[in-house]
Design goal:
3 domains, Protein-Tyrosine Phosphatase, Chain A, 6-stranded mixed beta sheet, 7-stranded mixed beta sheet, Rossmann fold, UDP-N-acetylmuramoyl-L-alanine:D-glutamate ligase
């Protein structure tokens, strides 16, 4: 119940009027406070089979629970309906037009863009998105009245008793493949196996449905070329744009729209959102009128602090393709400023010696690059040790400094000189429990 999306589902169902209970062996902030405020925080952390009683309609199973979880065992023995998170989302949206955004990167931002456009256009919708978004209390929204559901389609596994990727279960009417770059090597051991999951996703589109795909991506294009004939295929490219001293502008033959986000990868996300919005019934005028006020989602090139010519961005980037896209975007947006890229290797893939070479050149647009990994994370994931030298060699370039001690990393960051500096902090973790807001404020106010 304490997971990022699971606790949001619990809150959404409580808001819908359901009686909601749950369990977890560890619940961290902000989930703990949010569940407590809603009156549904478990009295104790842990698993308690006695909670599983015959008056339960549905048990919703998250990925964190192990296959031998005692509450799961009790529920299955009692013959209760046990559904994974994506199964339940599908069940709640089975009578709606389902829009599912897939891809190795850009899923959250594209989903958030579509939600923003629909909301601005006065169109009601249910949703599932992988990050906090301004204007929404939860990352999950379910209703009886909305006729559309916008779902971020994660390719990671569904549950301990269902090893299918989550996005195989949603059966979209409108689907997106926004690019494919190998990730999650702990469950998809080869690139070919990883790509196969997207082919299955594409084949899950409902008859008469639509697939929008990023045409320059070789694998996405190959999947589209081999799809069923009863699915409409819409290729898209990076949306036209330019950058000047006043900001970033999205452009078409007849329009110039100032936008609050930047980078070629976000212009790719913009194209995907446009095609989906049009397929869902939004007009071009409605789309471009709305997109100019979209400010992004949490930890996706999110500006955390700015003062005296220094700026700090926080980004969820961890896969090689996304890391490169984010660094390149910041370098393009801030010509003439010193770009300092900081990356934490936190996921199973990024900490694997066989995967590290895929990061070669990803930090090349930065003037200074800091890479951090926590040896404790390696032991927790039961991975072989890696050395700072191995990491530096994998990334390549003379601008790389590697740290395995978070204290030394933070000291080095705070000693970066210059008035015109942009810091890009990238991680799916938190740099060994670092207060990112406090660090950001220090970075823009430190006296050099």
């Amino acid at each position: 119940m304490g997971g990022a999306v699971m606790h949001n589902l619990a809150l959404a169902l409580k808001g819908k009027g359901y009686t909601v209970t749950g369990s977890d062996d560890e619940i961290f902030e902000p989930a703990r406070s949010r569940l407590a405020a809603a009156g549904i925080l478990p009295e104790k952390d842990g698993w308690f089979p006695e909670k599983i009683t015959g008056d339960i309609d549905t048990v919703i199973l998250g990925m964190h629970a192990r296959i031998d979880n005692p509450e799961l065992a009790k529920a299955r023995e009692a013959g209760l309906k046990v559904m994974s998170f994506p199964e339940y989302i599908y069940d709640q949206t089975r009578d709606k037009l389902r829009i599912v955004i897939g891809g190795s990167h850009g899923k959250t931002t594209t989903t958030a863009m579509i939600m923003h456009v629909l909301k601005k256009s006065g169109i009601a919708f249910d949703y599932l998105v992988g990050s906090a978004i301004e204007g929404y209390e939860t990352m999950v929204g379910l209703s009886e009245s909305a006729k559309i559901a916008v779902i971020e389609g994660d390719e990671y596994l569904t549950s301990p008793i269902d090893r299918r990727p989550k996005f195989h279960l949603y059966k979209p009417h409108i689907a997106v493949i926004n690019g494919i770059a190998w990730d999650h090597m702990n469950v998809f051991p080869t690139f070919e196996n990883y790509c196969e999951q997207f082919a299955v996703f594409a084949d899950s589109v409902m008859p008469g449905g639509t697939l929008a795909y990023f045409k320059p991506d070789v694998e996405a294009a190959r999947i589209a070329d081999n799809m069923r004939d009863d699915i409409r295929k819409i290729p898209y490219d990076v949306h036209g744009y330019f950058v000047n001293r006043t900001g970033t502008y999205a452009v078409t033959v007849s329009r110039t729209v100032k936008v609050e986000f930047f980078g070629a990868h976000n212009m790719q996300n913009l194209s995907a959102a446009r095609e989906v919005s049009l397929a869902a019934g939004v007009t071009e005028d409605q789309f471009y009128d709305a997109i100019g006020s979209f400010t992004g989602s949490a930890k996706r090139l999110q500006q955390f602090a700015a003062a005296g010519g220094r700026v700090v961005y926080l980004d969820f980037a961890h896969a090689p393709s996304k890391v490169k896209a984010s660094v390149d975007a910041v370098a393009e947006q801030y010509p003439g400023k010193k770009i300092v890229a900081v990356l934490e290797l936190h996921t199973y893939s990024s900490l694997s010696a066989g995967f590290l070479p895929l990061y070669s050149g990803t930090l090349g647009s930065a003037d200074e690059a800091f890479v951090y990994f926590n040896p404790h994370a390696l032991s927790m994931k039961k991975l072989p040790e890696i050395s700072a030298g191995e990491v530096a060699a994998a990334f390549g370039g003379e601008n790389i400094r590697v740290f395995s001690d978070s204290g030394r990393l933070l000291d080095s960051l705070l000693s970066v000189s210059g008035k015109d500096v942009v810091f890009l902090l990238m991680s799916s973790g938190d740099f060994n429990s670092t207060d990112m807001q406090l660090l950001s404020e220090k970075l823009v106010t430190v006296k050099i």
